[in-house]
Amino acid sequence: MAYQTITTETRGPIGLITLNRPKVLNALNTELIGELCAAVDGYEADPKIGCMVITGSDKAFAAGADIKEMSDLTYIEAFSQNFGATLERIGKARKPIVAAVAGYCLGGGAELAMQCDIIIAAETAKFGQPEITLGIMPGMGGTQRLPRAIGKAKAMDMILTGRMMDAAEADSSGLVSRVVPAGDLLEEAIKVAEKIADHSLPIVMLAKESVNRSFETTLSEGVQVERRLFHSMFATGDQKEGMAAFLAKRSPQFRNR
Ligand code: CO8
Predict the structure, then answer these.
(1) Partner of 9 at 20 to 30 A CA spacing, among 21, 54, 128, 135?
(2) pTM for the full model?
(3) Strand ranges (DSSP E) for 66-212?
(4) Is there a contact between 33 and 62 (Cβ–Cβ < 8 Å)?
(5) Fold of the 200-248 domain
(6) In this predicted complex, what is the ipTM?
(7) Whose CA is nearest to atom 45 of ligand 1?
(8) Tens digits of residue pLDDT in 97-120
(9) Ligand 1 pocket mutation, candidates 5, 24, 25, criterion most atoms within 8 A of CB
(10) How many CB atoms lie within 10 A of CB 38?
(11) CATH 3.90.226.10 domain range(s) in the chain
């Protein structure tokens, strides 16, 4: 499929999506969000894909929702279209997604990155929720996912002041899983994605589902869900293979079943 605002390529079991509106720092307009969701749909449906990577350019992962497109929106249009809801598709993906972030990762861009499972940041990355400076607040999950990621104090600081956080602060705050030199960003993200894709896909998907459950439920319910999912893994060939391979001191050959 020919996209206008993103590019896609597969690298073995990795589906790589690159946001591509360089003139506006990858601002997320309706077209880009639609294409991004379509690309994720495609990789989710492709049994050869075990992990996705979403990235931007050296200058910007994405500098937020497209302010030009949004500026004349009326309340009734925003409400009727359920504006902002489409991007939730990314957070609902069942296969894992790694965000590889360099440069600006602001507003809706940060909200997109936070819907991914792992954020890897280049040293140049700058995170922020500057919506307050535009007379709005985050509307694609930022007020919910940022406090869960970095705690209330830092999240309030970011959302109410609109300030940016550099990669080192994002790392020490727990927003990103690792920081790498800018030139190594994509290679590192692909390596992480390959490591994930080496494992049994259904088991990876269940592990992702279980971790995400922890944000939606109580501890005892979450532990119960985890245990049930854990039990179910003994019905898979990949559990038998993984443990047999360990005992035989060989590498496992997972078959995703
Ligand atoms: N939307 C549209 N265009 C943008 C955006 C954006 N978010 N960000 C940058 N651009 C454009 C600029 O207008 C400029 O275009 P032009 O060359 O035609 O003037 C071009 O990109 C380059 O930008 P700058 O010249 O400003 O580049 P600088 O390097 O000087 O500055 C910054 C980079 C600091 C990133 C600056 O561009 C900036 O502050 N951008 C806006 C950041 C922002 O406020 N983001 C939040 C947007 S709101 C949002 O994301 C809400 C999401 C929730 C919506 C859901 C609703 C329900």
Answers:
(1) 128
(2) 0.97
(3) 97-101, 104-106, 118-122, 126-128, 164-166, 178-180
(4) no
(5) Lyase 2-enoyl-coa Hydratase; Chain  A, domain 2 (1.10.12)
(6) 0.98
(7) 64
(8) 999 999 999 999 999 999 999 999
(9) 25
(10) 15
(11) 6-197
